[in-house]
Amino acid sequence: MLLYYLIPNKLVSNVFIYEYKVNPKPQQITAIDEAIRTSQFVRNKVLRYWMDNRGVGKTEMFRYNTLLRKEFKFVEELNSHACQTAVERVLKAVNRFYDNCKKQIPGKKGYPRFKKNTRSVEYKVSGWKLSENKKNITFTDKKGIGTLRMIGTRDLNFYQLEEIKRVRIVRRADGYYVQFSVQLDPRDTVKPITPSQKAVGIDVGIKYFLADSQGNIEPNPQFYRQGEKQLNQLNRKKSKKYRKGQPQSNNYRKARERYARKHLRVSRQREEFVKRVALRLIKSNDLVAYEDLNVKGMVKNQHLAKSISDAGWSKFRSWLDYFGYKYGKITIAVSAHNTSQNCSNCGKKVQKSLSTRTHICNHCGFVEDRDINAAINILQKGLSYEVQLGGNLRSDFALSTVGHTESYKLGEFDPLASLE
Ligand SMILES: [Zn+2]
To answer: Which domain holds residue 389?
Structure first.
């Protein structure tokens, strides 16, 4: 039995993050770090307060924040809204914890924890000011960060000041960034594109990143595996320099930074890759059907762990849904059940092991690459969902599946069973 639900527009994120690199001077770095540390201090203090007084809610937490501002000068120096966002971070963690308890998810419930390495401080609509040309930002609270020139190609002049809801300073392995979160509908920024009259099904594989029902194959990007080798080396170097129970050396700190920089580069490459593939698929098709895989379950499986996490499948899927929404295309998640076993030509079951790369049907004689055969099945499922839904399926709704066939239960999904 399959169930469906429609995701209304507003659930597709319409918050955009624009990011600029900044090159603060040494004394500005000190001030930024101090602001970040203060926001972490507020967060941890409020969390402590919640732990010691279980049952306190939002109001008490904000009131406690006000007390902190009176008690500590360095807290008072940080913009009051920035302190509030630190409290909101605690609230979010606490609510997530309560939610998990309520849902009775087995295992860890995510009890809120103290933060040691906060990397950002978040302002709301006050405490900062943009220059006339919107190329410089000045932080106006008493932390003394001052003016930063923003490096980046995005033109903020495109937006009204009141569309900017949050401003964040982020510290990364390779320097500092200023982020603006702007609230707007992605559809407002694009012209509708001419329908392609095409639909596509895609199968994410182990051998390839994906195969589609039109017979195209997108190979796995090599950079991650190469990058991973280097990452492992850097990680080993880092561990060698680690001194247990002692203050860490400069060499350890350097090794750790090198590792973090590499990690950042690799994850950026991966994100760029999946984004590019998703955009291409959405632009050249009107409907994209993909497998509703349980990535969490799959990554747990040792054999598949590398390829799956490599491929960034869940990131890819979010980009597909996002671009689908943006360009008014339909994305459908279908159950993965039997998609690789059945013959896409006659519908009969053709048992094959994971190592069999070619689908050869002994009923109708159809021969095709195993993943392309699966992709065709996925497309057919996707199209049949659309038929079942009939008039309900509108292009301004993204479609997703929640129910699963009896052999495919959330949380206990054995990837090998469906791939065999
Ligand atoms: Zn067949």
So the answer is: 191-419
Residue 350 and residue 204 share a domain: yes
CA of 211 to the centre of ligand 1 (A): 19
C-alpha distance across the termini of the chain, in Å: 22
Ligand 1 centroid from CA 278, angstroms: 30
What are the pLDDT digits (tens) for 274-324?
889 999 999 999 999 998 766 555 555 554 445 445 557 778 888 888 888
> What is the whole-number distance in angstroms between the Cα of residue 176 and the centre of ligand 1?
57
Q: How many A from CA of 366 to the centre of ligand 1?
A: 5
Return the beta strands (E) in 335-410 as ranges: 358-360, 367-369, 398-401
Q: Same domain for 120 and 235?
A: no
CA of 198 to the centre of ligand 1 (A): 24
> For residues 40 and 26, what is the distance between their CA atoms, to the nearest angstrom?
21
- Structure confidence at residue 394 (pLDDT): 34
Helix 58-71 × helix 80-103 angle, to 10° = 150
- Give dist(CA 250, CA 256) in Å, integer: 10
pLDDT at 7 over 70: no
Cα of 267 vs centre of ligand 1, distance in Å, is 41
Mean pLDDT comparison of 77-81, 200-204, 250-254, 326-330, highest-scoring range: 77-81
Domain boundary among 138, 164, 184: 184
Q: Which pLDDT value is given to residue 206?
A: 67
> Has this prediction a pTM greater than 0.85?
no
